[in-house]
Amino acid sequence: MTQASLKDEPITVTFSYWDGSGHRRNVTLKKGNSIYQFLQRCLDTLRPEFSELKTVSADQLMYVKEDLILPHHYTFYDFIVTKARGKSGPLFQFDASDDIRLVNDATQEKQDSHAGKVLLRSWYERNKHIFPASRWEPYDPTKT
Hints:
The protein is α/β, with parallel strands linked by helices. The protein has one domain: Ubiquitin-like (UB roll) (Roll). It contains 4 helices and 8 strands; from the N terminus they run αββαββαβββαβ. The longest helix is centred in the first third of the chain and has 12 residues. The protein is globular, with a radius of gyration of 15 Å. About 9% of the residues have low confidence. It comes from Pararge aegeria. Belongs to the FAM50 family. It holds the Pfam family XAP5. This is Protein FAM50 homolog.
């Protein structure tokens, strides 16, 4: 399979809009989409329900996965092919499930990987000294 066709594959990403408590949602996009494009899609999903997001742009959002703040310019493909790891395991696992009773679908994120948090940067700035935000750190591709 070529790199271009891999980047074009659809994936469903589970995320939790974080405003102090979690609001779990899913969005479908392509592996080649950037974190910024993902955040734009999240906004489209969340705006009807959360008035504080009506005037927000994706630039004002953050995506935190496995306690790592993921930069907007990376793509899901980047994290998948490098098998990037967070503090407690792989950042993204789109492998087929081990449970044969479930439909094996390599486009669905495995249930044992935690939903990433989508949040306002302003919320993070106000709460970065408090758990869980106090654990979060910028993603560093040189760390293993």
